[in-house]
Amino acid sequence: MTGIGQNRVREMCYIDGFPATKVGNKFLIHIEAANEWLRRRAEAKDGIDANLLRRCGQ
User: Fold this and answer.
1) Would 10 be classed as within a structural domain?
2) Residue 41 lies in a domain
3) What string of pLDDT tens digits covers the 58 residues of the chain?
4) What range does the domain containing 15 cover?
5) Cα gap 41→19, rounded to integer Å
6) Residue 47, in any domain of the structure
7) Is residue 1 part of a domain?
8) Which of 6, 14, 23, 46 has its Cβ near the most Cβ atoms within 10 Å?
């Protein structure tokens, strides 16, 4: 939907403020809220600090 890879989205789920909830081994992402979150980050040219991303399996 966003053009962002599945692994990168999974990593973004660990960033504070990203609209995701972990249920068991799955993340539930509120699509509209995630799109708004990404839009705000893009408008602010905030980007995503690679140090905030948690590699899957760690």
Assistant:
1) yes
2) yes
3) 668 888 888 888 998 899 999 999 999 999 999 989 988 888 887 666 666 666 554 5
4) 6-52
5) 13
6) yes
7) no
8) 14
